[in-house]
Amino acid sequence: MAEPPAQKKASSVGRFAALYIICGLALSAAVSPCVGADLALLAELTVPPELEEASADQSVASGLYAEMLSDAAFGEVDEAIEPAQRLVELTELEFGQQSKRMARPLTNLALIQESRGDLDNAGQNYAEAVGMLERFSSPVDRDLVTPLMGIGRVLDKTGRPGEAVLAYERARQILRRHEGLYTLDQIAMLDAMATSYAAAGNGLEADRQQLRAFDLRSRGRDDNSTEMVSALLDLAEWQMDIYRGLSPQDQAIYGCLIETDMTFADERPARCRRPSSRALYNRAIHILEEEYGKEDVRLVAPLRGLASTYYARSGRWIYKGQQGQVGEPGYEYQSQHARARSLLERALDIQLAQDSIEISEKAELLMDMGDWYTVFSQDRDRGMDYYREAWSVLRDGEGEGPAAEAFAQPKRLAYSRSPAPPRNNTANLSLELKPEEQLGFVLVEYTVTPDGQAQDVQIIETSPPGWVGQERAVLRSMRTARFRPRMEEGEPVATSGIQVKHEFRYVE
């Protein structure tokens, strides 16, 4: 074979692989050659085993692989397309169009195309790679995993999450067949499936995949090991994200995402059959305190997370036994929002005691404190002072740009609802619509004032029309809503013309 046309950055595939690793490690550097590349995708580029140790001058193929990996390593994704396409052509010329050997170059080309946003061609090449492996190897060939995951991502990115789940699950089953039922490599697949299920509106299955991933991370580890902390925090944050995305009505039902002990108005207190976010954060804090002490900076993240659970559910109902009319349970409402402030103050104290303080982390804690005063305190001026201090910290440490970006738009913080015990007799999570249910919405427009309240609230559209009760409920919730205001030059300002769609379930 003739010499390759370009050998511009090194002389062996192995050297480019090393450069690729270095590129990944350079992400935290001030200047990285990888800027602009989608490393999560490009890291999956592979070389045929027979060429991994070959020098670039031994063949056209090894030179093209070296060039492709080099371009990818330096974030030159557009340039990486040409050698990737030539490798497809070269492989087809040498082995024929119908050959298992075609799968690897097709998959590499698809990965680069996907990283560039060329989803149509990426999807087509992933599908061709899968077809080659199925026809000329086996329906459970290990090499199917990467193109199947690629198909799933393309389906997700093109708005077909329900179909994406099927591709992810098939990839996972193949991986488990080759690497064992409990391989940790399937966690990324479970995460992808959870995201797809959530996008498809199937919260029950999304949550199930996250619990599976948590079980895998926990398997074979001591419950009190520091290795468990990241798994605990990941699951807790996932559940918080699910909860934040629910309507106020659904939040009242799915409290098990936040706290383990729930009280329902039509029965005695029940214990949820799932780990709540609050329990997960508490467990992580306990592990870190036991291992590193109560002033360790690693406590900041779980303390902030635990505080967020008291934002999400700022009170609880305590069952007091049967009172009044026969069969009518008695309850006492207990506020818990002060717990959030004490947790945030502790996190801030730990952060300020460090010799070196991360600017963004300090600013986030100050914003958290501002949020607490805006939502729960009558002293909203103090909340505004925390916001001003956060702005100053960002401006002085990172410049005007990051400060302006942090306060570019108002952020909704919480809904303060009239306390009423949830009326649902199940502690299980199910976010799916029942067969007879449909989704409606109320679209509102409003202004956020400098002190973080909503005013001039107007109903823009209700679908289907005529749901006056839902309109009234949305207007009531907007009157008690609180926001982190937009800021200009360090001062809170009003923001008008904000539109938000509130969804609700109904049966015709």
- Give the count of helical stretches: 19
Rg calculated over all Cα atoms: 27 Å
The spatial strand order of the largest sheet comes to: 7-6-11
Order of helices and strands: HHHHHHHHHHHHEEHHEEHHHHEEEHEEEE
- State the low-pLDDT regions, or none: 1-37, 263-268, 324-328, 416-420, 422-429
Assembly state here?
single chain
Top keywords for this entry?
508 residues, single chain, 11 strands, alpha+beta
Q: How would you portray this structure in words?
A:
There is one protein chain. The protein has helices spanning 13-25, 39-42, 60-73, 77-95, 103-115, 119-136, 145-157, 161-179, 187-199, 203-218, 229-244, 248-253, 277-292, 300-312, 337-352, 359-376, 380-398, 400-406, 468-479; strands at residues 261-262, 270-271, 315-322, 329-335, 411-415, 438-448, 454-463, 481-484, 486-488, 491-493, 495-506. The protein is α+β, with helices and mostly antiparallel strands and 508 residues long. It has 19 helices and 11 strands. It has a 3-stranded antiparallel sheet with strand order 7-6-11, covered by helices on one side.
Q: SSE layout and pairings?
A:
Elements: H1 13-25, H2 39-42, H3 60-73, H4 77-95, H5 103-115, H6 119-136, H7 145-157, H8 161-179, H9 187-199, H10 203-218, H11 229-244, H12 248-253, E1 261-262, E2 270-271, H13 277-292, H14 300-312, E3 315-322, E4 329-335, H15 337-352, H16 359-376, H17 380-398, H18 400-406, E5 411-415, E6 438-448, E7 454-463, H19 468-479, E8 481-484, E9 486-488, E10 491-493, E11 495-506
Antiparallel strand pairs: 1-2, 3-4, 5-8, 6-7, 6-11, 9-10
Helix pairs in contact: 1-3, 3-4, 4-5, 5-6, 5-7, 6-7, 7-8, 8-9, 9-10, 10-11, 11-13, 11-14, 13-14, 14-15, 15-16, 16-17, 17-18
